[in-house]
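Sat 14:20. Reprocessing the chain from the morning session after the first attempt stalled halfway. Input below, unchanged.
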Amino acid sequence: MYKLNLLIVLLLSTQLCFGQSNITTATTKTMTMTFEGYEAGDYPHLSFKDSKTNEDYDFRHLSYNNYSGINFLLDDAENSFGLKANPRYLNKTFRVVASYKTVMDNDLEGKTIYIKDWVIASVKEIKPTVSYTSNYYTINSQRAYFYNTADYKSRRKAYLVYGEVIYPLARLNGFVYIEYTNANNIVTKGWISAYDLR
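Finished this time. Tokens:
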């Protein structure tokens, strides 16, 4: 009986030390994610958003992750930790393979604890596979917004108005990619929803 009680105490201690898990079977998962930026806190945080669930991830400390040679951060002496987000990858889409692992953290009192969380095992940029065309379209809505990617979650403030003519360079997932030059010779690049076109 004493050995059984000791075993139960050890199991409970392990769960408390390593964190309760709602993950029952999966130790890895593949997600399509958007890189949203960099924030400083008690350590550098890289922000990603799962395109399917809209859930935010920061994947813990940089050293726990394998970024597969992608430089999500650039040196910048004026920012926290001397880093900033690489604009080349901001709002771009990636295929992220994440592993559920034990990582070191600190509790509210600053003591070292170990918990289980998702970290990046590998990451690869998803580049649009598109077909080029010389056709033109006309904006058929009051406001046709620009998107950073061919995804409705990436909408920007910039838009075109009814009657504007555009020449798409690419098509993907119900969007067209354009480079639009206005009357002031300012070029705006991005994706437009095909629902706003005729």
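The first helix runs from residue 2 to 18.
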